[in-house]
Specification:
Number of strands: 41
Radius of gyration: 26 Å
Structural class: mainly beta
Largest sheet: 16 strands, mixed
Helix content: under 10%
Strand content: 35-45%
Number of helices: 2
Shape: elongated
């Protein structure tokens, strides 16, 4: 009670001070009530000998900022329209409720921080926490050509690099509304636009409370956004990529990770990827023309638990010789939900499910739309176990170039199994058919091409009467052509699925009568539900795999 009264009195005092002008332009008020300091940086009119605490007494250079240790609640504001060349690496950490904030002041364009070839990262934090970085323009070019050798001349170059090196759990790093472009790195997951990297060979290290939101990343090599870690050892896991620091640490996931509302255009290898997380949410992002210099998937994740991937648009991946899919549930993922996404015109296909090291288990893919994805629509590779694909709409038009509907590969980790497909629409003007090993189908719709799975006991093969199949364009809202006409045979022809998420791709509630087939649930007048028994998803148990032959990856030097 006493604390509440004190806080209330302080809030009233703060309001009076603001009105009367006792708190000036060079101060902020932290969440815990203690004032922080606002520092201004002006590349034209500033001077490093100034106090920096007023726009008329601004600092000038990055060197001044980099030499300063900031305190919780401090703000570092760059003048809009200004530009600086070099590396931005302010020191210090904020505190819970009082982060240190980088932002802009004044009107005009975002302040530009342009990297130099002598520094691999333009904006850098190392073993720091409670920071928010907003509203900057960032570049990091190199005159050297792109190389698939990760030790190439460009180096592991980054726009924003957040490094946790043997520091345990670091909290609250927010990266928002940046314009990052022309970051010229090499073929490695540790190079690109925004990179979070945990290195915990001796001290298990990770991040908690990460937000990467509203950023635009263009022409970034190799990745647009990547969350990396070497704290990955569990369940008999084998070796990882050569550029991940060894020895590996025990599996220590980053938590409360959200990647949202970002646009990634022309990432050389992959658009958005993450590993060693628990409960990551990746939503409302757009990835365009990823993999244009080297093959990978546009949006993919590995060695992570309880992933939610939703409301994303992934399209026009360029290199599909190996991956090149819109989405990829990669090695070692335990629990992934992929829903309400739009994948189109990707060179390698729609969905990749892969494992090379230890089990990828318990994946649900529902209420997504795939249009004119190429090469293969679904690829299953290695020890995939328990996949439930339902109520997806797949359109294979002429632009798809006669893809495989699904293929299947056994690897040293094992073979795919327990793949179940319900209530999906497969509409094709030309495809090469399915590899059905490990899969079951029921209550799906097949129209055209070689899509038909004859063993499907409740299949629908009549014209699905979609409003305008193949008419989707760019944008999540461009796909109304995949809704059902009022006389579609898919209305009420599906089987109910328990715990179905409660909505279709378009936001309509489920169900209206018996379930419809496809990503759209018709909302007009329909007969009442007939009481079909719902399909219940039963996750597979997770047990350690046998230790792989060879040296212990945790002890590799």
């Amino acid at each position: 009670m006493l604390k509440r009264t004190a806080r209330k009195a302080f809030s009233m005092l703060t309001a009076v001070l603001l009105v009367t002008g006792w708190i000036g332009a060079d101060s902020t008020v932290k969440a815990d009530g203690a004032p922080g300091t606002t520092y201004y940086v002006d590349n034209a009119a500033g001077n490093d000998s100034n106090a920096g605490t007023n726009p008329d007494k601004a600092w000038k250079s990055l060197d001044k900022i980099n030499a300063t240790t900031f305190a919780p609640g401090d703000h570092i504001l760059f003048k809009a329209g200004g530009s600086w060349q070099g590396q931005l690496w302010p020191k210090g950490s904020g505190a819970d409720g009082s982060p240190i904030v980088i932002d802009k002041y004044g009107s005009g364009g975002k302040p530009l921080i342009a990297g130099v070839t002598s520094e691999l990262q333009t904006v850098f934090l190392k073993n720091q926490q409670y920071w928010e970085i907003n509203n900057l323009e960032v570049t990091n070019p190199s005159p050297e050509p792109f190389s698939r050798d990760w030790k190439g001349a460009r180096g592991e170059r980054r726009g924003v690099y957040i490094l946790n090196e043997e520091s345990g759990i670091l909290n609250h790093i927010y990266i928002k509304n940046l314009n990052i472009h022309d970051v010229d790195g090499v073929y490695t997951t540790r190079s690109g636009g925004i990179i979070f990297d945990s290195v915990g060979s001796w001290v298990p290290s990770a991040f908690h409370d990460v937000l990467i939101d509203g950023n635009t990343l263009t022409d970034v090599d190799a990745y647009g956004i990547y969350i990396s870690s070497n704290c990955i050892v569990r369940y008999g896991m084998g070796d990882l990529w050569e550029w991940v620091p060894k020895p590996y640490g025990p599996w220590t996931p980053s938590t409360q990770v959200k990647i949202s509302n970002n646009t990634v255009v022309r990432a050389a290898t992959g658009g958005i990827a993450w590993n060693v997380t628990d409960g990551a949410v990746v939503e409302h992002n757009t990835v365009q023309e990823a993999t244009y210099l080297a093959t990978n998937a546009s949006i993919w994740w590995a060695y992570a638990d309880n992933n939610v991937v939703q409301y994303n648009e992934s399209f026009a991946a360029k290199n599909g010789s190996e991956d090149g899919t819109g989405f990829d549930v990669d090695a070692g993922n335990l629990g992934s939900l992929v829903q309400y996404n739009y994948s189109h015109d990707n060179a390698g296909g729609f969905m990749l499910y892969v494992n090379d090291t230890y089990n990828t288990i318990n994946t649900i893919v529902r209420y997504n739309i795939s249009q004119n994805d190429k090469a293969r629509i679904f690829r299953y590779s290695g020890s995939i176990d328990t996949v439930l694909n339902y109520n997806n709409t797949v359109y294979v038009g002429a632009a798809s170039g006669n893809p495989v509907m699904s293929d299947y590969f056994t690897k040293s980790s094992g073979s795919p199994k327990n793949i179940k497909n319900y209530n999906n629409v497969y509409y094709s003007v030309g495809d090469k058919g399915w590899t059905l090993t490990g899969q079951t189908f029921d209550y799906n719709a097949y129209y055209g091409g070689k899509t038909l799975v004859s063993s499907d006991a409740h299949k629908v093969t009549a014209s699905p009467k979609l409003v305008s199949p193949g008419s989707g364009g760019t944008g999540m809202n461009s796909v109304n052509g995949y809704q059902l006409q009022s006389d579609s045979p898919l209305i009420g022809a599906g089987v109910p699925i328990a715990d179905n998420g409660g909505r279709d791709y378009f936001g309509n509630p489920l169900y209206n009568g018996d379930p419809d087939i496809g990503a759209f649930e018709y909302q007009g007048t329909v007969p009442p539900a007939t009481g079909k028994t719902p399909i219940t998803y039963t996750p597979a148990p997770i047990t350690p795999m046998p230790k792989p032959p060879g040296p212990d990856p945790g002890n590799l030097a």
